[in-house]
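Example record for the data management plan.
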Amino acid sequence: MKPMFQPAPRPRPRVTADEAQQLAAATDDLGFTRASAPPAMRAPEPPVGQSPKTPLAPARGAALKFEVPDEIWIALRQEALNRRVTVKYLVLEALAAKGYSIDLTTVPEDGRRIR
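Corresponding structural encoding:
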């Protein structure tokens, strides 16, 4: 009796190397290097004499990643929970208290995105 489940057959190429070269030669004038690659999405150029539109969202800054001891992380998360703010907001608030110029009104306290 034949087993119920058998290994899947190895995939076979549907197109031979010669057929792939013929296809590449036939579509060379179209400007495609791969038939499955999506076209590059670019923003349209503004008409002559007009300046490009500014993006609606503010420019993003650099990301800061570092490790802290578990005790500090737990304390930061608990403080953020108690005050209903994010840990990011707490860190930026502490930097502002140290004299760094940070506009805390532009940082959402609770982490929700402004829609």
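Summary line stored alongside the record: The radius of gyration is 28 Å.
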